[in-house]
Specification:
This protein has 233 residues and is α/β, with parallel strands linked by helices. The chain has two domains: 3-124, Response regulator (Rossmann fold); 132-232, Beta Barrel (OB fold (Dihydrolipoamide Acetyltransferase, E2P)), CATH 2.40.50. The chain is built from seven helices and 15 strands. Strands 2-1-3-4-5 form a five-stranded parallel sheet, with helices on both faces. The longest helix is centred in the middle third of the chain and has 18 residues, at 107-124. The protein starts with a strand and ends with a helix.
């Protein structure tokens, strides 16, 4: 019998989800309302799947918590949220996850999403991060270390790759390029920019500075960047 952890800051809702999961034949290992307790729980327990609310108690939200979990454990995560605006969807799409369930949901929707989440791991496996990407530049094949990349900038069907010493333009959509790298050091901070978090020099609620470059920061993302820089340091 599959074991599921519920991360939900509303206890009544968490208990309702627990009853539905039991009805569907699953066991529930716990209902936790904050990131710190979740990380402590996972040190001693390994659920088969985590149902993750985005708005939880504590210093980090469910999206940041999912990133932390994915960097340590091979556990599928399905998001639970009442929010469907583009800013949340953009943040969610920046990291791997196995499903998304919009509140309120039906028993059948919960059943389908949990089933697909549990089976996603079997189908796709976990791909290793790329340390080197290879591009074409003026007829030559150029290997680039991901550690040397400062940021990526989308420009239609093309993407600019800015390294510490040089910039390149490749014919590849930004999303496809980032998906192929699958590295936790890169985060999408704007619809047109993906940055290397480890290279941030300074930032505020509107922009990020990396060397001499100024990169716009999308609204509502300041707390996320602050948390990631803190983890980096």
């Amino acid at each position: 019998m599959k074991n599921i952890l519920i991360v939900e800051d509303e206890l009544d809702l968490g208990q309702n989800i627990q009853e539905l999961l039991k009805y569907l034949g699953y066991t529930v290992s716990g209902i936790i309302d904050n990131g710190k307790d979740v990380l402590d729980f996972l040190k001693e327990n390994t659920p088969d799947l985590i149902l993750m609310d985005i708005q939880i108690k504590g210093d980090i939200d469910g999206i940041t918590l999912c990133k932390k979990i994915k960097s340590i454990y091979d556990i599928p995560v399905v998001y639970l949220t009442a929010f469907s605006d583009i800013s949340f969807l953009d943040r969610i799409s920046s990291y791997p996850y196995e499903g998304y369930l919009l509140k309120p949901f039906t028993v059948e929707e919960l059943k389908t999403t949990v089933h697909l989440g549990l089976n996603a791991k079997k189908k796709k496996g976990i791909k290793p991060e790329k340390n080197i990407i290879t591009i074409k530049d003026k007829g030559f094949t150029v290997p680039i270390s991901t550690q040397d990349i400062l940021f990526f900038q989308a420009d239609g069907l093309y993407t600019k790759i800015q390294t510490k010493t040089k910039s390149y333009v490749v014919r590849d959509i930004l999303k496809d390029l980032i998906d192929s790298i699958r590295s936790s050091r890169f985060i999408r901070v704007h619809k047109s920019y993906v940055i290397n978090v480890k290279e941030i020099d300074s930032f505020n609620s509107k922009e990020i500075h990396i060397q001499d470059f100024v990169i716009p920061l999308r609204r509502g993302f300041y707390k996320e960047i602050k948390s990631m820089v803190k983890e980096r340091d």
